[in-house]
Specification:
This protein has about 220 residues and is mainly alpha-helical. It is built from ten helices and three strands. The chain has two domains: about 80 residues, Arc Repressor Mutant, subunit A (Orthogonal Bundle), CATH 1.10.10; about 140 residues, Four Helix Bundle (Hemerythrin (Met), subunit A) (Up-down Bundle), CATH 1.20.120.
Amino acid sequence: MSAAAFDKRGLQIPQLTRETLQEQVFRRVTELILDGTIVPGEMVTVQSLANLFGVSPMPVREALGRLTAANALTVVSGRSIGIPPLNLTRLVDLRNVRIEIEAIAAGWAAERRDDEIITVLAGHLNDMENSIAAGDVKAYLRGNHAFHFAIYRAAGSENLLKIIENLWLQISPYFNMLHGSYTVANEHHQKMFKAMRDRDAEALRNAVRADIDAAYQVLAKRLG
């Protein structure tokens, strides 16, 4: 993919500074994966991303190396990188691990939550409802990610958050395939919001598990 291909989508990405350049590039590429900008079946190159970010190929190459090691990206052919293919075995494994790990974070978050997080979650819920009404898949995926990770950050564990982010890097590119079931997903989000508001850790864990499992059921059916 060329930088021009990104430009056609109307992306506005500011130039990076030299300070902590490697980490900045890593975070930017991570965001492109999490928000569905790099989609399954699409190939990117070191040079196209270097051109996009306005940096040399070296920090991009290092970022892609880290993401490949984390199973978020894979070498497709030659110098091209893409999203790893998802099969049913890998999907089941991701589902099982997510149900355990994300439920733990949710339970901790419910016990530690403050009033500010409730306002934040309400805003993300509203954004997702608006994106569903507008048929804006990318906006919904951004809102979905923001909603979940607001809860997981509230758990107060950086180590747990990194584990969850790695899991999402592997599964979230396929959330595009859930289009048509976002309204049902938001019903789970409403239950998560209520449980968080009520500081009901068990209800929040159950709602998170139900949300993950519902997405799994749709993806498993579409994968055959």
